[in-house]
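ping. complex inputs:
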Amino acid sequence: MKTLDRKLYRDLWRLKGQALAIALVIASGVMTLILAVTTLESLTGARDRFYASHHFAELFVELKRAPLGLQAQLQQLEGVNLIEPRVRAAVRLAVPGYGDPVRGQLLSLPDGRQPLLNHLYLKAGSLPEAGRDDQAVVSDAFAEAHGLAPGDRLEAIVNGRHTQLTISGIGLSPEFLYQVAPTDLMPDYHRYAVLWMNQRALAQAYGMEGAFNSLTLTLQAGASEAEVVDALDLVLARYGAIGAQTRHDQQSHRFIEEELNQQRITATVLPAIFLTVSAFLLNVVMGRIIQTQREQLAVLKAFGYRDSELARHYGLLAAAIVLLGWVVGVALGSWAASGLAGIYREYFRFPEMHFGVPLWALALSLLVTLLAALAGTWHAVWRAVGRPPAEAMRPPAPHRFRRSWLERLIPAPLLGNEGRIVLRNLARHPLKAAFSVVGIALSAGLLVIGAYQLAAVDTMIDQQYRQVLQMDMELTFNEPTPARAAGELRHLPGVLAVETWRRVPVTLIHAHRQYRTSLLGMAQEPGMRQVLEGQGRPQRLPETGVMLTRHLAELLDVKVGDTLEVAVMEGRRQRLSLPLTALVDEPLGVGAYLELSALNALMHEGPAISGAWLLVDAEHTAELHAALWELPRVASIGLLTAAEQGVREYMDETLLMVAVIFVGIASSIAFGVVYNNARIAFAERARELATLQVLGYTRAEVARILLGEIALLTLAAIPLGWAIGVFFSHLLHRAFSHDLFRIPLVFTPHTFGFAAAGVLVASLLVAALVFRRLGRLDKIRVLKAVE
Amino acid sequence: MDETAEVVFHARGLKRFYQMGEMTIQALRGIDLELHAGELVVMLGASGSGKSTLLNILGGLDSPSEGTLSYHPRRSEGSHEPPSLNLATASQRELTNFRRHHVGFVFQFYNLISSLTARENVAVVTEISRTPLPPEEALALVGLEHRLDHFPSQLSGGEQQRVAIARAVAKQPEVLLCDEPTGALDFQTGIRVLEVLERINRETGTTVAIITHNEVIGDMADRIIRLRDGRVDDWQANAQRRRPQELRW
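pong. complex structure:
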């Protein structure tokens, strides 16, 4: 087959423009697949390895206080394997030379040794020495943010008492792969820290001698998670436990899972779109190549080449294009994956994360692209080789043209000769024209999706931080505090306004569904924390009953007017029945809201609060921070501007990357479809165009025929592309609606304009190329050539 | 002509209809004919007489709509030579094998593969043949030994047609079928091409069938078969073949 293969190379070289355009689309599909799969694999791999090697716990219980002696009893519970009681405490830190308040949590370690569960991975230094009460391991992200090293000192407030801590080591824990403050969405490594110190020392500082307030466990093989949870809840309820949590509820684990789900969607949806388009392009182009090579094909058949040999020949041509696309896609995918790896390394703290393209992903992507190529080429090749050779050697029957209905709609003088040719050409191959329109529309759709994501995330952050959360600072107290504490806060320097709130951990129950969250009690008309209705207008809190985030109401399958069971997880642990009075629309998190004094009444307590929101004069921040440092009752201080900034930075970083990839691949599709279409139209009409030029038409007039076709297809594709984009955005909106955050469904004129502009630019580029080619058309040769 | 020579093709009542756009064309309306081993036959006819269709069917490029057509009807299964084949009922696979090993084609418009050089155009055929000539030798046979590595676009029409002949004879076929081999060439070049065909017939004993509308070419044949309107109008044997150099038109 040597000579035929040589023909293959030369044909490929002649078709390099079209081949490249198709290869680019294939490359886009392969790239998204490789990117998503590689990220998925390395995240999952790094996570699973770390979980296994450092004994990540399977159940987590927070409680008020239980005697260490209870451990033996818990150990007897059926299904419990390892059990690790510990002390957990909120901590406030001051880093020398850093002005902003830092909050964090302190966890206990068995004196001088690793815990049974959630081993620490020490990046530097060592565990606190046994018996030392002033040493702590700090989380690596925090240490990195502040340039801390073993031996450095920190000032801390634990349980209202000031202490000096020396850093003994820098560590990572499988519990805090995603290191974020309980009330935040994004990590803020400057202002949030996790620390570990000796059990005895922490218990003493926190008033937990001989007791624990946090428990982690693993299950025996085959044990029922739900049964163990129930058993634990039964035993621990009287010790103030708010219910055992599985890994699914664990914050860090949960966030990684969401991220992985997102990658899973990316790994399937996008490659599917790209590979469908490339299959279609291959079909069109291979059909065209074979059409122009009818004679050659017939001659080869006349010489006795078998159908299978010819099919192989053209199959290889398609395969070569596909392979090129695949190689480029793998290269780009690996490159993009390593770029994304940098971002992930910063947000997910794994001791090690290997970013290698898994072999099976290479094989899978190759298989999928080859299948797409096969689907695209099979028909064209088979139709050609299946014909009796003599038939292929006769000139094709003259094309049948007729006046289309579209043509009749437009008055003749308006249409002109060029317009008529354009319309009839399109009408002759309506299916091909339709495919081209769909191809271009898909790329416009991708651009809509890309622009939608950017706009939606921006809207989401705006809603959350400009409309819902309007405070500058959130203070949380160590424990429920009398409401008069608010008066004290009001007199701190720089405080403009104070609003208090009460938070009670609860489990909401409706029929067989339940959800663990907290009731947030606020003023009847909260000023700094809005509860919005569907149109984004603030609502008043009802005097009785509870409001739920719309998403939570859907999770619980409860409607306004229904009654919710509320199991209170602190104090007397009563069970309440509360009517659902209204729904709240908010993009981040889920919650249950009611009026503060109503909540106090339900809890059978006086006017108590869990924390306060502050409006602050930016001029006096430093003084305020210093004053708050002296208020040991404040367990944590959250800075909303910093949080918003963190979210925006993260979104900018990841979404910008995604947007660049999206725009790149969407334009490659638009270009691939339009370019191939134009080249084929050009080749098919070379004689026609040359004739017109010989007859005295100018280049511009002749170009109008080709460019008119491109323009018509593009214009038809844009509205369809908008529709496709809106449809897929709906899917994305639904796929990315979970209790952590919900991307709102918003479309702006900007989004549609961007998509249209992207496609138009690609078409203009093609038009310029076609126009140039038209100048090089050898009129005499085309007319003399044998048809 | 040697009437005792083996019959290569035996046709009875060949008919062929085509659907061309919205029209049905009756290309062959019932052809009876025999071609013998080693003879040079010229089939004459105006355009539309059905001569190309007949040639395509003889060469296994096309199948008749009706009638019978046998290749080497008298050969038995066991002989060393190629077995006989009923071309009218042969499967596509059998037709492909038939073309691959027994027939060489020369077309009016050469039909060279433009992305391959002269040598490669010949090699495309020799690579799938059982007993091919080396491409260089086949090209030397048509006087193109000095143009081996030229692409079709770098060759004149006559040279291209000679490459096509070299390609056709390189597999050493039993039958060489030529469809208007001089149709696209000027007189001088046409004569050179006919010389090549004549020499191949004379030296190798290959059965050669040439179809043309040019009456003069008939003078170089053993036999002339005239086609009109899809039927054999008449046939005539030449007592003496004229050499191509002697032809004038």
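Chain A is about 55% helix and 20% strand.
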